[in-house]
Design a protein that fits this description.
mainly beta; 3 helices; 9% helix
Length: 394
């Protein structure tokens, strides 16, 4: 019927049809609408990236991110994701729109630069933050190490660690070091097995375990994902199982989530797989997993349970047009291949953007945080406030 009207009425209906499709029809179908974009933190002297966000028990929003000097201002041709002077900082807000102007130091490592602070708030209010670091060593140590060091851009990998706060982020304990994953082929600069690490969200399961999907180099140039669990609020961890492993494909930067029925699902970034975002699922409490492609590109993903038990899945899009995207999945995360894609924004300057992380502001609004640039300008921490209508009957 729409095609018939289109032919009979010409340009007027053509414009109406295009506006309907582009200007809001898809958003209405998914019950998702963007309210506004906000700047969480921006300082042109710094390269700010890789945020995570939580809403504390007192209602205050806390965003953690990695900060380093903008090396282009100091004569470098470009910035790298590894830097001697990178450290973890936080900013706070009461409403998601107005943020503290001066960041507070969360942690600076004694031996090197830091990456990707990943926050989790437990049911009792305890805060956890995972991260990992890099340092520089002499060439002789690299050449003489009996086992290979993870070496890139003149830096050697220090491995992962965890911080913990029991006073609403006023102070942090640690670092605590998770175990070495058996498949990890690299050692650290002191010859020790590298402690587990990853970029991605942990999850507190119904049985009290904390779930964390970590990564390890199981062969040269290739990574796989593994499940670690903690039963003492993140103080100690134990290796549990393989989440995703393939002879050719790398799995890395992963967020884990438990569905209402108890399935453990992992949303994984990949390499050597056309940038496909993948999902792994366990129906036996994390003992075994099976994985598959979700059929779209994502760099990387974060999952947030909505008040009606659906899941907001957000991800960076590092292809033209560069930006941030989202899908709303059903409660069990089984409709990833048919769930409608929503473009949160597509005005990024290049592929050095993304890493979104979401938090519920109130019953109907969500804040999505991420790092961004426009026209290859300074990297800054941005956010988008979305309105998500609940399903009928919920």
């Amino acid at each position: 019927m729409m095609r018939q009207v289109f032919r009979e009425n010409g340009l007027t209906i053509t414009l109406f049809f295009c506006l309907l499709m582009v200007g809001g029809f898809a958003q209405d179908k998914s019950s998702l609408r963007k309210i506004k974009d906000v700047i969480v933190y921006r300082d042109t002297l710094f390269y700010n990236a890789f945020p995570s966000v939580i809403k504390k028990k007192d209602g205050e929003l806390l965003v953690a991110f990695r900060q380093a000097p903008d090396r282009r201002l100091l004569g470098a041709s470009h910035n790298k994701h590894v830097d001697h002077n990178s450290y973890l900082v936080t900013v706070t807000s009461k409403d998601g729109e107005n943020w503290t102007k001066e960041p507070k130091l969360l942690y600076a490592h004694a031996f090197g630069g830091l990456q990707d602070p990943c926050l989790l708030q437990l049911k009792d209010g305890t805060l956890l933050c995972t991260s990992y670091g890099w340092t520089t060593v002499g060439k002789d140590l690299i050449d003489k190490s009996p086992k290979p060091l993870f070496y890139t851009n003149e830096f050697v990998f220090l491995g992962g660690y965890m911080l913990r706060s029991t006073d609403k982020a006023k102070s942090w304990e640690g670092p605590y070091y998770p175990p070495h994953i058996p498949d990890e082929r690299h050692v650290g600069p002191y010859g020790e097995g590298i402690s587990a690490y990853n970029r991605g969200a942990m999850y507190e399961a119904k049985d009290g375990r904390i779930l964390w999907v970590a990564v390890a180099h199981d062969s040269q140039g290739k990574t796989s994902n593994y499940l670690l669990t903690s039963r003492d609020k993140g103080l100690t961890w134990e290796y549990t199982s393989v989440v995703a492993k393939d002879e050719r494909i790398s799995f890395n930067e992963t967020s884990v989530y438990e569905t209402p029925k108890g399935d453990i699902v992992a949303f994984m970034r990949t390499d050597n797989f056309d940038d496909q975002a993948c999902i792994a699922r366990s129906t036996d409490g994390g003992k075994t997993f099976s994985w598959q492609s979700m059929g779209f590109k994502g760099h990387p993903c974060h999952a947030l349970r909505l008040p009606d038990d659906r899941v907001l899945l957000v991800y960076g899009y590092r292809h033209k047009p560069y930006g941030i995207r989202a899908r709303i999945l059903n409660a069990e995360c089984t409709d990833f291949d048919t769930a409608e894609e929503f473009v949160i924004r597509n005005d990024g300057g290049n592929g050095d953007i993304g890493y979104p992380w979401s938090v519920q502001l109130d019953k109907n609004r969500v804040l999505v945080t991420y790092y961004y640039n426009q026209n290859n300008g300074p990297r800054y921490i941005a956010g988008s406030i979305l309105k998500i209508a609940a399903q009928k009957g919920k």
